[in-house]
Design brief:
With 405 residues, the protein is an alpha/beta fold. The protein is built from 12 helices and 15 strands.
Length: 405
């Protein structure tokens, strides 16, 4: 919902406390001009005639939230959701699709989803040509015929403005007996293209250890805090030490919550030992949105609940993923900078919520999006709350998915 008429005009964000914006955390006014650029910051700013005003006293303001791992190739895969469901109306200004499309169908993803969206959408291109057309029912990495190096390179070169890396899913349910080989091929492609690789880790084979040994600084390991047997960094001291070393060398550990890939216990132990995630992301799709993920703010709140400091949570949801996709991370409040902010509250809570393993925790604080500002566009934001669904005669008996979702 856009709560203001869609005409252009200045915006005054009044009294918000900046976080991760490179200025002191004290109530500040931000004036955005009619072209969607920061005009002035300070206290007691006057709004020009006709300005749209956001009364943000008692609220926080950060760079626009960035979800580094979601699935929004709606209609092109059986797992994706519409960008609007997890974007501006949830406080997220940038969505990064994590490999929904491969080279064979990326053109459709771009034309029908990326280009029309109000949100900024970037993408990791799946190394498997078909992407996630029938996710986990038809693997995109069956054997060597699943990857076409020449066509993948051509698609990346034609779409470098939106493709920001290569995605590969490295777990037994995907690669089967092919093991670590698809990760090696994806890594070679990423090096040739001079792009980072995002690798999904989960049920071995291949082993999490094997995957980490192949990565370069700048690569992203998503599902870093999964609780799966053989894939959890806290069940194996040598793996934990390897993950610590890799993080210190610049390999980026990403949360990628998802329906099966985030454990409260794993995250809490890792954070207590000093290993924080580089970035926080949801892995939202139509099998995770109603249970257990919900939205970006709730995922951020879970990390807050397991001991990650507030400022680090915000940085991991803004500046860190912004650096992965090549966005500027400094001077965001300087006059002339394009306005892109999330205004949110930090509310007391007693919400009982689950992780991907089914374990419950009580969130004592919730980070609740209130407004998203993107250029001269102002969108009122709110949390997503799940609804009961039944699979019905044409639905999936395993995840509750139903046609039309």
């Amino acid at each position: 919902m856009i709560p203001f008429p869609p005409e252009t005009g200045p915006i005054l964000i009044a009294g918000a406390t900046p976080v991760a914006l490179g200025v002191p955390q004290s109530p500040t006014d931000i004036l955005v001009d009619a072209q969607g650029k920061v005009q002035a910051t300070g206290q007691g700013l006057s709004a020009p005639d006709g300005a749209r005003r956001i009364d943000a006293a008692g609220l926080f303001i950060s760079p626009g939230w960035v979800d580094l791992h979601a699935h929004v190739w709606y209609g092109g895969t059986d797992i994706s959701i519409r960008p609007a469901l997890c974007g501006l109306e949830r406080g997220v200004t940038t969505i990064v699709d994590a490999g929904s499309a491969g080279e064979a169908n990326f053109h459709g993803f771009r034309e029908y989803v990326i280009d029309p969206a109000r949100e900024r959408i970037k993408a990791f291109l799946n190394v498997g040509s078909i992407g996630l057309v029938a996710c986990n029912r038809v693997s995109e990495l069956i054997d060597m015929r699943s990857i076409d190096l020449d066509r993948t390179i051509a698609v990346v070169e034609a779409n470098r403005d939106v493709i920001i890396g290569i995605k590969v899913r490295a777990s037994g349910v995907i690669v089967g007996a092919w093991g670590i080989t698809p990760v090696k091929i994806a890594k070679k492609l990423a090096r040739v293209l001079k792009l980072p690789m995002m690798v999904h880790v989960g049920e071995p084979p291949p082993l999490y250890d094997e995957v980490l040994d192949l990565l370069d600084p700048g690569d992203v390991v998503t599902h870093c805090f999964n609780g799966k047997a053989g894939g959890s960094i806290v069940e194996d001291d040598m793996l934990f030490a390897l993950a610590e070393r890799c993080a210190g060398e610049g390999i980026r550990l990403d949360v990628g919550h998802g329906g099966a890939s985030f454990s409260f216990r794993t995250a809490e132990i890792a954070i207590q030992r000093g290993l924080l995630p580089f970035s926080i992301s949801t892995d939202l799709h139509n099998r995770s949105i109603d249970s257990p993920v919900w939205d970006m703010g709730t995922t951020m709140s879970k990390l807050l609940a397991v001991g990650m400091p507030f400022e680090k949570v915000i940085e991991a949801s803004t500046l860190a993923p912004m650096s992965v996709i090549g966005m500027a991370t400094e001077g965001l409040l300087k006059p002339g900078a394009r306005a892109e902010f999330t205004v949110f509250s930090r509310d007391p809570s007693d919400l009982s919520i689950r992780d991907s393993m089914g374990h419950e925790a009580v969130l004592r604080e919730l980070l609740v999006p209130r407004w998203a500002v993107m250029g001269d566009l102002v969108v009122k934001a709110s949390p997503y709350r799940p609804h009961e669904t039944t699979a019905g005669p044409n639905g999936c008996p395993h995840c509750g998915w139903a046609p039309g979702r």
